[in-house]
Amino acid sequence: MGKTMATSSRDWNQIYAIYGVDQWQTIVFLLLHALFFTALSIFYLSYFESICSFFELLFSGGSARFAAGFTGCVTAISAFCLFFAAANIFYSSLPLHYEMALRMVNAVSDWSTVKHALDLGCGRGILLNAVATQLKKEGSSGRVVGLDRSKRTTLATLRTAKMEGVGEYVTCREGDVRRLPFGDNYFDVVVSGVFVHTVGKEHGARTAEAAAERIRVVGELVRVLKPGGTGVVWDLLHVPEYVRRLQELKMEDIRVSEGVTAFMVSSHIVSFTKPRHHFVGSGEVRLDWRC
Ligand SMILES: C[S@@+](CC[C@H](N)C(=O)[O-])C[C@H]1O[C@@H](n2cnc3c(N)ncnc32)[C@H](O)[C@@H]1O
């Protein structure tokens, strides 16, 4: 079976121009704090003796020097951690997101037979457009639908698809992922990137209500997938919960990727196949997913 791999050989200026930087407010917030702590660390280094004299007003002799040194070290470590967090979020927001979208596309063994694909919570469309690009590369008559609850987002996503030159392969639909507006067994491929963990957050991420909603989304994903179809989900949190649900639903060939640090947490890609026949397998989970 021939397989065209999705690869990245893109001009990053063009990619940034199309998608922009997500969560830039968080990045600016972290950078400002990192700069503040850097300035404080430099101040500590430059005026260490004066700072020790100040600490001597509060502590006696040796403990004043220790307290000054300790707070200086904490300040420098905080600056480093804040720079690291800002850099990781900046990297995760686009370069890593783009790379993970390609890995998700490559988790599907054969795109040539794909007629209908779905991206749940398509957002800016990085993953959606990666799927559309793969369909275009295959010369496929297949199409991908991006589902998002926000009309503004779906309109913006259609614009990114046009800019990527895959507009004709993409349609967007407004809807709620907890009640997918599609019939059973319709899509050959269903994907979702850094999204499912956000469902039900309004109840509090650790509540039973939120967990029930996430489980419902996994159920909906399986419902709309054709027998023999492939599901691929990349998420930052709750991956073991999805795997348990997929095992309960008797999905086959469940694979979990190694952890990839994204947005400061260890994220995983889960891929699986919906059984062609109602064959109940062992529900084995393999941890050897090729990335
Ligand atoms: C973090 S973005 C996803 C990014 C996207 N998957 C990508 O690869 O670029 C999450 C998106 O999910 C949408 N969303 C949130 N809750 C939703 C729901 N219940 N149903 C459908 N879409 C939802 C939001 O509007 C947002 O655009």
TrEMBL record:
Listed Gene3D superfamilies: Vaccinia Virus protein VP39
Alphabetical list of SUPFAM superfamilies matching this protein: S-adenosyl-L-methionine-dependent methyltransferases
A Pfam family reported for this protein in Swiss-Prot or TrEMBL: Methyltransf_11
UniProt xrefs under InterPro entries: Methyltransf_11, SAM-dependent_MTases_sf
Transmembrane stretches, start-end: 27-47, 67-91
GO molecular function, one term: S-adenosylmethionine-dependent methyltransferase activity
Ranges of residues in domain Methyltransferase type: 118-231
Domain of life: Eukaryota
This protein's UniProt keywords: Membrane, Transmembrane, Transmembrane helix
Annotated PANTHER family: EXPRESSED PROTEIN
Protein name from the UniProt record: Methyltransferase type 11 domain-containing protein
Organism field: Cucumis sativus
Organism ancestry: Eukaryota, Viridiplantae, Streptophyta, Embryophyta, Tracheophyta
